[in-house]
Amino acid sequence: MSQTQLQMQNDNKRTLETVNPTTGDVYKKYFLHDEDDAKDIADKAHNAFLSWRNTSFEGRAGIIVKVAAILERDKTELAEMMARQMGKPVAQGEGEIDLCIGIAKYTAEQGPKVLKNEERDLEGGQKGIITYQPLGVILGMQPWNFPFYQCIRYSLAVIMGGNTTVFKHAGLCFETAERIQKIYEEAGLPEDVFSVIYANGETADSLISHEKIRGVTYTGSARVGKVVAQEAGKYLKKTVMELGGSDAYIILKDADIDAAVKTCVEGRVNNAGQTCVAAKRFIIEEDVYDAFKDKYVAAMKDVTYGDPMDRGSDMGPLSTFDLRDRVHNQVQDTVKKGAECLCGGEMPDGEGAFYPATVLANIPQGTPAYEDEIFGPVASLFKVKDAQAAIDLANDHRYGLGGGIFSQDTEKAIDIACNQLDTGMVNVNGYGAARPNMPFGGVKESGYGREHGGFGLKEFMNIKSVCVL
């Protein structure tokens, strides 16, 4: 149902206004679904599933290939939409759409291979068949920081598997949700295979108990993720949780410092630092700490922010004024408790939810920069005695999403990455947020389950065992 139809039919219901974070002006107004609306949408998604599950792998893949083509066609327009919604610079928005295109192509190509039936020999000459069967309607709840990617990565996987999905986006990105539905249907996806609910979190949570919802995938904060997982657990429904992170990047004494500085700046300020797998904590061996610190601070001082429509801006605004204020309060609280602010850390004048690139050092335990996730362009520097101390500090955190290591001894770095860091993902001598052919996900309070790399295709499938006697 389009927003125009919603406005005509629900003009007496609660509304939601979104704000352009660059200007502070109201951007869009949406009429919200209530619980009855949401349940009706879920019922229709189930009815669509009864047909969609019988569509061939080739038929599903053909539609997903068309999705990739439409995304390519509309790339700049979609990037500009994100800039207005949540402040992402247009060039970075185009990069996000490129990632979505890559996911679509990978899913279409690999889906039929990953999900095809497998045969195994059993004792006595008997045959075993492993078949991957869709579960039904999957509820997806996704955040605002990557408006297209967060939805594309989960929804194409479940659709490729023969499931249908009801999608609840963050309120400030309802426009994106509506556009994705139009893109999917333009590509040939049948009505109600991908459905959108325009609702608050409570209404979306109420769907978890709905008998037609067979699984839930959630990306967001650990605090809310625990609530969603607990509610799903009451009904024994499968969940995938991609939650917060405070990724540590270790700079060993044999690292290429100039390369590490350049990469660590990019890893911290991309998307204005509003990334779960952003490089957030920088743990440096004492032999090279001063050299890294001086060059890193100088580079962070050169980071620019401004209108996200201006391709010369390194950063746009933070997504909301509330988030900007929360980031600033975390910085101020950390400094008040003894940390040193080496650059940034001041609320800028003028319009827009902007915040400067900021570097903190000498950070005590018990402060936000030590214990929590700062969802903005704030870097935390830590000096350690040696590599083992760096590993211990990196692991001494409740989050375990991603991380990185810089060393010119690549084999040593790989060993640390594979065997000693308690995270779901590690970058060696580089930074990368997501790749279509590599699994994405974390451990500890960063969640569980995996997306991408073929693993996400199986998360919401019934892996059925058939023994032929």
Walkthrough of the structure:
Residues 1-10 have low confidence and may be disordered. The protein folds into two domains: 3-243 and 447-468, Aldehyde Dehydrogenase, Chain A, domain 1 (3-Layer(aba) Sandwich), CATH 3.40.605; 247-435, Aldehyde Dehydrogenase, Chain A, domain 2. The longest helix has 25 residues, at 90-114. Helix 15 links the parallel strand 16 (403-406) and strand 17. It has helices spanning 3-9, 35-52, 57-73, 75-86, 90-114, 149-160, 174-186, 201-206, 222-234, 257-269, 286-301, 321-336, 368-371, 387-395, 410-419, 455-458, and strands at residues 15-19, 26-31, 118-121, 127-134, 137-142, 164-169, 194-196, 213-219, 238-242, 247-251, 279-285, 340-343, 358-361, 378-384, 399-400, 403-406, 427-428, 443-444, 447-448, 461-468. The protein is built from 16 helices and 20 strands. Helix 5 runs parallel beside helix 6. With 469 residues, the protein is α/β, with parallel strands linked by helices.
Give a concise summary.
42% of the residues lie in helices and 21% in strands. It has 469 residues and is an alpha/beta fold.
CATH topology description of the largest domain: Aldehyde Dehydrogenase, Chain A, domain 1
Which architecture of the largest domain per CATH?
3-Layer(aba) Sandwich
Q: How much β-strand is present in the residues? A: 15-25%
User: Mean of the pLDDT scores?
Assistant: 96
